[in-house]
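Deliverable D4.2, example record:
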Amino acid sequence: MALQIRKKSNYYRMHAKFLKILALTVVSVFFILPSSAQTLELGLFGGGSYYLGEMNTGIHFKNTNPAYGILGRINANRRWAYTLSYYRGTIEGTDNMTGRIVPQDYSFKTTVNDISATASFNFLEYFTGSKRHFWTPYLFGGVAFSFSNLANSIAVPFGFGFKFGISKHLGLGLEWGMRKTVTDYLDGVNFTEYQSGMDLGKDKTSTWDWYNFFGINITYKINLRSRLKCNQDGW
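Output generated by the structure prediction step:
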């Protein structure tokens, strides 16, 4: 048992160390980028949040609750952008969805606060204010930290969305993103410990919980360079 506990402890320390290095790298990039960035966008987010875990093993958008947030985005060029955001949303689940959780009839509802730093890649050239390059689908990924009254965790955010330039300074975005945490206590219950009789040697990564956001964001563009070249594409 002592050996199993040590293996578990070393496993989690290794993952925590890797994610800390990744987080420091992302934060460093955000400090370096403004000197070469073209534009800054500040905006608001509104949409929904939901949970995936032992009490909802794969039904997306089930038990969706309202979510909201703020974001800042640095556009390095027409393909790459870097976003720092704070989102807040409620997630919930009940045991009667699956009948697998002990104790029976367990339910939870909690508010999750998410701070994310992500990089996004535009499939098409895009900048807010362009009449030619005014929309694009994009993918994003990065690192996040979540905190709630049930658990705090580092998370890996990733997802996709669409951007639309609606005026010289305003942009509209549709986005769906998932957050893979490194905890099984986001819902207040460790499923593996209940089912395995405290088998600490078992790999628990498959039971780590998820929380997810989807919605709309609207941003306002600020030019960081006084002579931003639009190639006669702008408004």
